[in-house]
Amino acid sequence: MSAATVAGQSIDWATSMLVSKSGPFGVFSTGLSILTGWNPFSWNPDTYTAILCLVGVFAFLKNYMCQFRTWLEQHFTSQVYISRTDESYDMLSTWVASRGLQHSARSTVARVDGGRNDQEDKKKPLTFAPWNGSFFFLYKGSVVSYSTHLRDNGLQKEEEVVLGCFGRSSTILKTLLQECRVEYLGQIEDKTTIFENRGDAWMKMVTRETRPLSTVIVDEQKQLLVEDARDFLSTKTRKWFAQRALPYRRGYLLHGPPGTGKSSFSLSIAGELGLDVYIAHIHDASDQTLKSLFSKLPQRCVVLLEDIDAVGITRSSKGLQEAATTWAGTLSGLLNILDGVSSQEGRLLIMTTNHVENLDEALIRPGRVDLKAGFQLADANAIRRIFAFVFHQDTTEASTSRGHEVDPTLETMAKSFAARVPEHEFSPAEVISYLLQYKHSLAAAVENAEEWVAAMRKEKRDKVLK
Ligand SMILES: Nc1ncnc2c1ncn2[C@@H]1O[C@H](COP(=O)(O)OP(=O)(O)OP(=O)(O)O)[C@@H](O)[C@H]1O
């Protein structure tokens, strides 16, 4: 059949290409006519004209329909807006996911959930969240709409969720969000949530099991720091500060070589006191960004500024000096933020550094830093405790059967191991890393200790020579 016969019209060569059986549209038209019994290429021109008119009318009305929808929303529905960077977003999305509601959304965004890979068979689990569209669900008998879109906040585009319901009262939405909050708090109880800054917003990175303080091998002096923090957060102390109009803030400086447990200790303190941790990466933060970040901190939290020396704040004979650095902020700006009114009440600031001697006095003066704690390379006692700690699980059954007695064999081996590893030469992280190779063989860990020490010494010497 020729193209002209198919169309029933006299047509030019271009049209003939379109409708020719060998062309894509010809194949489409033939397929469509076989499947549905009607063939658009056999319609007369009036039909096309009518369709075009309808499309035109719809295009014309579309704007009015959008305006009408907005008007309806404004006058007959209520909304609650939830920003992606606010923790209420996590509360809502956890609630939505727990009920599988995200499957009602036609368009979803997939993410690998790095925070939930605690089960072996669930490596890199995927989570799906509603994205760029809307869906409806029933909540306590009310229809609730859930829609997401990108909101331009002037600096960047940010995901925003809009919850909506019919009527002028948003009570049902607030009840829903309260329920999300309660459920979320129940799920993160006994866990530590870690936030990091993305630009001037705090993003939840992970919620993980609280690390008990007993798993960080530190000397008795560090226990004083924990007690100080506990006392600071008590209601009595808060009132004491309020009565004297003193800024209710506390600052700690943890200093010492890499791998001695400064970060682990900070996270454990937060866990012990039931606080969330806010890690501020100040290297690429301008003064304005930092100010905005500090003003968004919740009351009662731990703010962690790691490797504070690395941003280029150095001591100088001329006083404050910002060394040649790529840091986007300034020392004076940072000091103002730490002292300033925008800095939230009830926050514990923990700064860590490998080079306390390089820090400017102004940064660590009392008021900004109230207590300092030095972390050292492992001494004999620490080496022995680390050994007992690492191999503790292998002997759990034995120690349980004897109550909570210390396993004498483990103790003897720990002492023997400590006698073979020199004091103040290796960090706890290095010792742990060595022991983990032998997690199923205590005896080999002790036997090969001297060999490991020799290899480590050589490696360190070679590094210095390079
Ligand atoms: N005192 C310690 N007790 C138990 N584990 C430790 C200790 N010190 C280090 N570790 C382990 O070593 C690893 C690194 O420790 P961590 O990051 O806390 O050290 P750090 O002093 O903060 O290092 P850096 O200065 O490089 O940031 C972690 O896995 C931690 O569990």
TrEMBL record:
| KW Iron-sulfur (keyword) present | no
* Spans through the membrane: none
InterPro entries in UniProt: AAA+_ATPase, AAA_lid_BCS1, ATPase_AAA_core, ATPase_AAA_CS, BCS1_N, Mitochondrial_chaperone_BCS1, P-loop_NTPase
Q: Where in the cell is it found?
A: Mitochondrion inner membrane
Give every AAA+ ATPase domain span. Answer: 248-379
Any one cellular component term from GO for this entry?
A: mitochondrial inner membrane
> Which terms does the record give in the GO molecular function aspect?
ATP binding; ATP hydrolysis activity
Q: Which reaction does it catalyse?
A: ATP + H2O = ADP + phosphate + H(+)
Xref: Pfam families: AAA, AAA_lid_BCS1, BCS1_N
Which intervals hold domain BCS1 N-terminal?
51-216
Asked if the record carries the keyword Magnesium, the reply is no
The record's keywords, sorted A to Z, are: ATP-binding, Hydrolase, Membrane, Mitochondrion, Mitochondrion inner membrane, Nucleotide-binding, Transmembrane, Transmembrane helix
State the annotated membrane topology for this chain.
Answer: Single-pass membrane protein
Q: Which family does it belong to?
A: Belongs to the AAA ATPase family. BCS1 subfamily.
Designated name of the protein: Mitochondrial chaperone BCS1
User: Taxonomy-wise, where does this protein's organism fall, top ranks first?
Assistant: Eukaryota, Fungi, Dikarya, Ascomycota, Pezizomycotina
